[in-house]
Amino acid sequence: MIAENTQTQMRKGILEYCILSIISRGEIYASDIIGELKKAQLLVVEGTLYPLLTRLKNNGLLSYTWKESSSGPPRKYYQITDEGRAVLSRLDVTWKELVFAVETSLQGRND
Amino acid sequence: MNRTIIININSIVFHIEEDAYDTLRSYMIDIKKHFGNTAESKEILEDIENRIAEMFNERIQTGRKEVINLDDVQQVIEQMGRVSDFEESEGTTLEEDVGHEQRTGQAPHVEYVGKKLMRDPDDKMLGGVCSGLAHYFGIEPIWIRILLVLFFLLGGSGVLAYIILWIVMPIAETRADKMAMRGEEPNLQNFKKSFDEETKSFSETFSGTGERIGRGARTAGNLLSGCFGLIGKMIAWIMLIFAGLNLLGLFIVYVFNMMNFFGLENPIFFPPLKVLSTNEGVIALTFGFLAIAIPFFALFFWLTRILFKTDKLNSYLSLTMFAAWIVSIVGIVYYCIAASQDFREKSTINVQKSIQPQEIYYFTEKDIRVLDASEQDSLKSKFNIQLDGQDLRNYLHRDISIYFENIDSLSQPYIQYSYSAKGKTYQLASERAHNIVYEAIQEDKTLLFPSHFLLKKNALDRDQQVTVTVYLPQGAKVVLQQEIEHKIRDISYWECRNNYPNENQQKYTEWTMTNAGLRCAQPPKPKEEEEEKEIVESEKKDSVIRIDGSNVTIEVKDNNVKINTKKEES
Lengths: 111, 570
Hints:
The structure holds two protein chains of two kinds.
Chain A: H1 2-24, E1 28-29, H2 30-39, H3 49-58, E2 62-67, E3 75-80, H4 82-110
Helix pairs in contact in A: 1-4
Chain B: E1 4-9, E2 12-17, H1 18-35, H2 39-59, E3 67-68, H3 70-80, H4 83-90, H5 129-137, H6 141-153, H7 157-168, H8 175-182, H9 188-218, H10 220-261, H11 278-308, H12 315-341, E4 345-354, E5 360-366, H13 378-382, E6 396-397, E7 400-407, E8 414-423, H14 426-434, E9 436-437, E10 441-443, E11 446-450, E12 453-455, E13 465-473, E14 477-481, H15 493-497, E15 508-514, E16 517-520, H16 528-540, E17 543-547, E18 552-557, E19 560-565
Parallel strand pairs in B: 2-3, 5-11, 5-14, 7-13
Antiparallel strand pairs in B: 1-2, 4-8, 6-12, 8-13, 9-12, 10-11, 14-15, 15-16, 17-18, 18-19
Helix pairs in contact in B: 1-3, 2-3, 5-6, 6-7, 7-11, 7-12, 10-11, 11-12
């Protein structure tokens, strides 16, 4: 149980970081984000993404615009805000620290 | 061949097969429940719906495949993820080790979250109410049925409850409804499981016999009029009139009782309400009215539905009514308990008042409800206006007992008054006892006892009693007037009166105080009674009296007197 919990917590933080990174590359549609995340094997089901996107948007890290689609309903295209960029650069630093921390710890274990 | 339903997701129209719709609907309900009802969740749901619409759109190929089927829906759901998957990624369930069915956060009452109170058309004796309740409480339907029969035997209340529930509880028609009813709803695994089971066995039977039964249950009227025909209709009419008259009567009683509380006094008054203050009384009366009237109303409405085939009552309205009914029953129980609490402690206050010694004392009652022009006592002024008919019952109490005790022949006679009342606490009770106003008036040899006593400050009815003990020196003579007889305890006025020669005209009895209490001064009548007895006995015997010479016989037999005359034919 604790293992699962830890796994979930780890994934959760990383998932948000990845979403921000993906969006930072340019305007993108939700299902494309899903495609990327699936490719990265971070996401299993699509439904999980929407709450995350909404939360990031409500925190001012993302914004979106409606765009007509050739097949089907209009789509929401997400883009990163300046604030989002600031957060992302901070997260980049944190990630590097984390990688360092984890690698160091793992090395210590393997010795 | 399959029936399709047209749905609209985000302004795009889809044709969807019925079973696929059920699955989709329950999935959406599931998701809605999961995300709660905040502004944020609205947006999330919109996004999800949008995405579903898009995915459906991808699956539709004009000309070849224009209908969304169960397979599509299941694939879309698979792709979108179930509630349990969401939970996993959010890490909410993990603190609780119960599993996926249990949701946290917005829904703390996990057990019944998915359960809905619905009638079960698959397992029913009459309307499926019992099995619906059983599903809801997670027990075997047989227990509910036994309970219902018990309630039916205890005054028939079960029938009313059943009818109300029949009206209030919606029938579980779709598969999603049934799952909600059984409380299996929360995640999709369950749904799929149930669906797989059902597609195997249930769908064939359901479309056949099940459908027919379901339809029959939908309108109870068909059932009743079908079975009983004309007789059933007549019974329904009689019951309808009965219920209607009852409602009318209840309403009249309610309105007039209310008028009593608001100062418009009238003879229709429900006595137990007297123990409550005006505010409480108004609420208690309303509760009582609702508790009785709602079942009658339900019966009335049900019958009109049968007889006139009118529409079902709005489910919100009927649910409100049912809730009001439960609340009023609880309210009545509360008031009963609260009122009885106010009778817990008893307090008695004793007051002694001496009376002037006389050789002979006349005891009589003064009916204070009758205005006496020559009266000068203070009691009179208190009644000036209210002394008129039924008014008085709110202010007058008549629980008065009079006892006689002897004291030394040289002592001063006196009267001891014991005022008692009840209350929640001893202090309250004694306060109430203090509010009792009652005292006898001595006019020379006559002691006047008022017929009723009063409560100061218009106090509530709390079992107030007055006990009067008259202490008279031995040897004192007492005359008891007949008016006061019903207040006298311990001694028998009537036994003494029987000693008088013309007891029916005797308006008073004379007594003497002895060391063993009051004794009847009139010695018992001698013998008379025995003679009477003999007569009675002789009457009972059948006898034939012959009167010789004139050929006439008088026959007495079984209280009949027969006179036979034989005329000599010569």
